[in-house]
Amino acid sequence: MGANFTILCPIDFSECALNALEYAAKVGEKYKAKLIIFHVLNKKDYQNLSPLDLGGIVQKEFLEQKLRNLQEAVLIESLPKGLKSCEVVILEGAIVQATLDFSKKINANLIVVGTEGMNDFKKQVVGSRSSKMVMQSDLDILVVPRKAFFKRPRKLVYASNYVEEDKGAIKKVIQFAAFFDSEIDIVHVSSRSRLIDKALHKTMVEEIKPAISYELVNYVLKSFRDDLALGLENYLQLAKGDILVTVSKKKDFFDQLFSKNLSRKMSYFITKPLWVIKSY
Fold first, then answer.
1. What is the pTM of this model?
2. Backbone angles phi, psi at 10, to 5 degrees
């Protein structure tokens, strides 16, 4: 984690993006981070909104003022609580690619992005930009659903796959949990109850436990007959978890839970934030 922790939060002024900004600021307070509010300007969209503003000057000025207002609100609220700084950056381009390129340029430690999640009434999946960022990013990313308003996380649920990366990722989770005195459930999920899973679970606990000084850690083995992603979500609800954490190198764990990618699917369906750890 280094001393210069940087959080990038893409903003499009939607409700879910503003919700993500609150999460970014609250997390930034704990890490004493630099927070960058990031907006990607699409000139074509703004020209469609205001055809007479050919150069997009009026729209851009209005946009800049809105971003300054957000920046000011964050500084007033979070600077006294530990946030190091808050900056605003505007670039032109495609939202997903511009965000990922800029995150690499500034060597961001965490991207915090909002998602609409599942529409409870129409049952239509939305939020594809956030899922693309999860799938394509090489950096840690926190996906915040629209209805997940910030509160002190009492429990983090870490989905384990018994891989070497778990050890480094769990250390990162413990550092985060310690900021809030949060409990951690390290959960291994399986499609069926097998002796080999029980043996792996026991081995993992024996390997990880001695290296962990944090006391609020539980080790859980769960099997789900149906969709493992939905099983994880169900466990998150029953255990009253506040954030689901997974580790990913774009495929490994996710491809074992789905034919495609867990984080991509979960970023649609969860009602709690999803933290995908990409670096260990």
1. 0.84
2. -70, 135
Distance CA(247)–CA(182), nearest Å, equals 19
Provide the β-strand partners of residue 36.
Answer: 8, 87
- Reported as a single tens digit per residue, the pLDDT across 200-251 is 778 778 878 887 889 999 988 877 666 666 677 778 888 999 998 988 754 4
Identity of the amino acid at 25:
A
Which three-class secondary structure state does DSSP give residue 275?
Answer: strand
Q: Quick check: helix, strand or coil at residue 247?
A: strand
> CA-CA distance, 43 to 268, in Å (whole number)?
28
The amino acid that residue 197 corresponds to is D
- Which residue's structure tokens are 């990913």? 248
Rounded distance, CA 190 to CA 172, Å?
A: 24
* Cα 176 to Cα 227: distance, rounded to the nearest angstrom: 29
Contacts of 28 (CB under 8 A, 6+ apart): 5, 7, 34, 35, 78, 82, 83, 84
pLDDT tens for 36-63 read 999 987 766 655 556 555 555 667 788 8
Cα–Cα distance measured from residue 222 to residue 52, given in angstroms and rounded to the nearest whole number? 59
Close Cβ partners of 31 (under 8 Å, ≥ 6 residues apart):
1, 5, 7, 109, 179
Distance CA 19, CA 158 (A): 23
- What is the Cα–Cα distance from 273 to 103, expressed in whole angstroms? 20
User: What is the C-alpha to C-alpha distance for residues 223 and 201, in angstroms, rounded to an integer?
Assistant: 12
Nearest to 253 by CA among 167, 179, 169, 159: 159
